[in-house]
Amino acid sequence: MRLLQKKSECPTQGFLVVILIVAMFFFTSSVSASEAGSGFTEVKRFKAAEANQGIAVDEKYFYAIDNAKIGKYDKNTGVQAAKWERSTEYPAIHFDGGVVVDGKLYIPHSNYPESPMTSSIEIFDTATLKPVATHSFGIMLGSLTWIDRHDGAWWAVFANYSRVFGTNREPYGNSYWTVFVKMDDNWQVQQRWIFPEDMIQRSEPMSISGGSWGPDGLLYVSGHDHPEVYALKIPKMGSVLERVKTLPVNIAGQGIAWDRSTSNTLYGIVRKTKEVIVSQLR
After folding, report:
1. In this predicted model, what pLDDT tens digit does every residue of 225-243 receive, in sequence order?
2. Which helix (H) or strand (E) holds 269?
3. Among 6-15, 36-45, 136-145, 180-189, which is the least confidently predicted range?
4. Are the CB atoms for 133 and 123 separated by under 8 Å?
5. Residue 240 DSSP symbol
6. Does a cis peptide bond (omega within 30 degrees of 0) precede residue 131?
7. Of 93, 96, 114, which is closest to residue 105 (Cα–Cα)?
8. DSSP state of 250
9. What is d(CA 213, CA 251) in angstroms, rounded to the nearest whole number?
């Protein structure tokens, strides 16, 4: 009787095991398919002579940013609407990625690659593309590369570099000292974080060149050269940002900017060809 009972139980147990394996297979396949389906699709590409350091965007225009030049372009046609460049009155040295907030274009500015590192925020009226305000950080945490507005605060990166410039004998701060900060409305630092080690390794000898908070609440950042962005979030504990995913995109590092007047649209640049790339997040 025991033997017969075991025989009658075995087929049922085996059937349950098969069902469990099949269910796990379909679950794993659906997760893989979901991950495989995520990423960016290029939808537009524009020529812009100033597309060398960063990019900013608002409802009607994008702003291509060079070291000491800004080009304002129509988002639909790519036709230049205005431009600005340094002068003796406004002796810009090194601009990076920007952001448009309430009709003002905020651009990080530094004395890169001079030492000691100094940084400032230069503010322009988007209607006229004229400077209207400035805030100097002086010597601080590194070289300011990008800034964004999110959740009632300012967020920025002060970059450091492992590269040795000119007659210097020491690295320009060392890439591992790059810091992500949260600031209040008076530009006072409230908190600081660093980036995952493997991200810094991939960006060496340069650093984190672009960043913008995404529509999904994640922080998207880019390095200096690679055609990819990293989605991050604030950690629940500690000082190292948590990487959620890495996504390929048709840019070459440098500044990035989410278009907040529409959905899931990211602007980036390819500095070698002086192009602005518009991509849609799947």
Report:
1. 999 999 999 999 999 999 9
2. strand 265-270
3. 6-15
4. yes
5. B
6. no
7. 96
8. S
9. 17
The matching CATH number, chosen from 3.30.565.10, 3.30.450.20, 2.130.10.10, 2.40.10.120, for 44-281 is: 2.130.10.10
Q: Which residues contact 112 (CB under 8 A, 6 or more apart)?
A: 93, 94, 143
* CB proximity list for 237: less than 8 A, separation 6 or greater: none
CA atoms within 13 A on the CB side of 198: 5
Contact 240, 232 (CB under 8 A): no
Q: Cα-Cα-Cα-Cα dihedral of 139, 141, 146, 147, to 10°?
A: -90
Instruction: Provide the whole-model pTM.
Output: 0.85
CA 235-194-271 angle, 5° bins: 115
Give residue-wise pLDDT tens across range 137-146: 999 999 999 9
Q: Which two tokens stand for residue 99?
A: 């952001």
For 152, phi and psi rounded to 5 degrees?
75, 15
CA distance 147 to 138: 16
Contacts of 131 (CB under 8 A, 6+ apart): 84, 90, 122, 123, 124
26 DSSP β-pair partners: none
- Whether the Cβ atoms of residue 83 and residue 99 lie closer than 8 Å to each other: no
Who's near 46: CB < 8 A, 6+ residues apart? Answer: 62, 73, 78, 275, 276, 278
Tokens of 216: 């999904």
Backbone angles phi, psi at 57, to 5 degrees: -150, 145
What six digits make up the tokens of 131? 């400077």
